[in-house]
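Hey, can you fold this one?
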Amino acid sequence: MTQTFRRDAERFADEIKELRMTIHRHPEMGNHEYRTAELVERYLNGLGIATKRVLDTAVVGMLRCDNEGSESGSAKTVAIRADMDALPLSEITGASFASEVPGVMHACGHDVHTAAALGAARLLSEHRGALKGNVIFLFEPDEEGNGGAERMVREGCLDGVTAVFGAHVSPDLPAGHIGVRYDKFYAASDMFEVKVKGITSHGAVREKGIDALAAAAEMVTELLALPPKVTKDKCVLTVGRMQSGNAGNIMPGEAEFEGIIRTLGPENRSRMEKAFKETVRSIADRTGTAAEIDFIHSYPGVVNEKNMTDLAFRAARETFGEEKVHVIKEPIMISEDFGLFLDKAPGSFYHIGAGCSLPLHNPAFLTEENVVTELAVMHAYVVWSYLMEESDE
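Sure. Predicted structure:
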């Protein structure tokens, strides 16, 4: 079937590439993807795929198989997710289809993600009569901001889904190469802000006050040394802002600092939060200060399920050949809210080479034009493999 999808992709290559270029020309920030959502709906409806709009700009498409029993609860239902939002950057790629929206561009490849999912819908719809299950296409808003995945899950978009897959373009792989990662892949991210209160005093009589700045500085020093004491996995704790005092001869009675922690896997995330709070409170008790901790949970990270990653790995090798498929050896410390979908259904998140060595979120980042059709084929064959192989269990 992989060769069939490849032949179909060649037939529809211009159509899929044009979708990508149109989306790239008209980037939209998170929760404002109205034009993109309308394009998605129009294209899916043209394929006979029913859609519904949620969260104003999120789109869910449902491709139902024609086999008997597809409407029953026993039918397999696999989801493909694509994020749609752009970034607040001014594009300098020089592409013929460069952004026409001042100060906004697709510098993270979401134009490719969206168009590839639409391309997969085109390929799968050509063979809906042979599918042994249903396919849901999840077009997510605001991944770069506050995250659309959590809100889509709350809206019930994953209800009934038995497996979920997604992908991201990667500057670390050659164009069209596939990278799979087992287990922990993307980091969880949690923001923190700590306010320390002591007693202000004249700098000449420190003994009459309680130095909030000194206590906060000790907290920061201890916290920065915390990760290797808590986990053997990679963990990054960064303090990005610290503020205290307003004169050199006044011992400050207040200080505050804020930053972010990135951890791999839910166990490490929990341990780091516990150790963080214990460290701050211990120093506060010892220095006679009071510490107020605001710990803000963000994306949970991506932890791929083994069986679904095995399936994606096999599908990639059958589609692209052994030489173009790589097992990613190390997790990465950036965040991705696809993990919220994985909390609801087993699945896997994989990479496809962008053909551009510049980092993501760079104003000159531009994915090579054929990547979108390659990713469409990958998605289609992963879905096909899951529905056809798993249905026999």
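The mean pLDDT is 94. Let me know if you want another pass with a different chain boundary.
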